[in-house]
Amino acid sequence: MQQLTLPSWDALPEIELYMDQVVSIVERALAPLPDGEGKAVTPAMVNNYVKQKALPPPEKKRYGRGHVAAVFMICTLKRVLSMGEIRTLRQLLLQSRDEKECYTLFCSELHAALARVTGVQGAPADGRDAARDVLALRACCGALAEKLRAQELLSDS
Q1: Which of 3, 69, 78, 84 is 20 to 30 A removed from 31 (C-alpha atoms)?
Q2: How far apart are CA 99 and CA 57, in angstroms?
Q3: d(Cα 47, Cα 59) in Å, to the nearest integer?
Q4: What is the CA radius of gyration of the chain?
Q5: What is the mean pLDDT of each run of 10 residues along the chain (157 residues)?
Q6: Residue 15: is it exposed, middle or buried by C-beta count within 10 angstroms (0-12/13-18/19+)?
Q7: Residue 1 Cα distances to 6, 30, 34, 100, 155, angstroms
Q8: Rounded to two decimals, what is the model's pTM?
Q9: What share of the chain is helix, strand, coil (3-state, %, to 5)?
Q10: What angle do CA 50, 95, 44 make, to 5 degrees?
Q11: How many whole angstroms from its chain centre is CA 107?
């Protein structure tokens, strides 16, 4: 988890990309995440995200910065939210922000949460001396609580 660092908006390619290029960029950046579900993203997954309206359709089979940022968000958040919830969250965020602000906020929140959990950068370690099983249980309960809170907030919109 400590090795996961999503690229900043300015580090995303300025030129429009083909599907395979998008998949390659996202796979490389998400490589530090455990791959219990297989690949982080495949071309079929990206096509599915477009069909489910979680991702805007490409323009002439090319994907811009906003698409790549959205794929990063989707591939990260799908571990805890349904595709419908992700779509709702993105729509909610984009009501008052542009794509750059939305992605930058997402990266900032993700990196802060990872720092809190791993005890990096002065964030509280929250009982890091506890037994591994207790830490695992605490993390699972925390993830569930945060997921339920996110679902509650998204259902109100």
Answers
A1: 84
A2: 15
A3: 13
A4: 16
A5: 82 96 94 73 95 95 97 90 90 92 90 76 53 66 73 77
A6: exposed
A7: 11, 10, 9, 24, 29
A8: 0.81
A9: 60, 5, 40
A10: 10
A11: 8
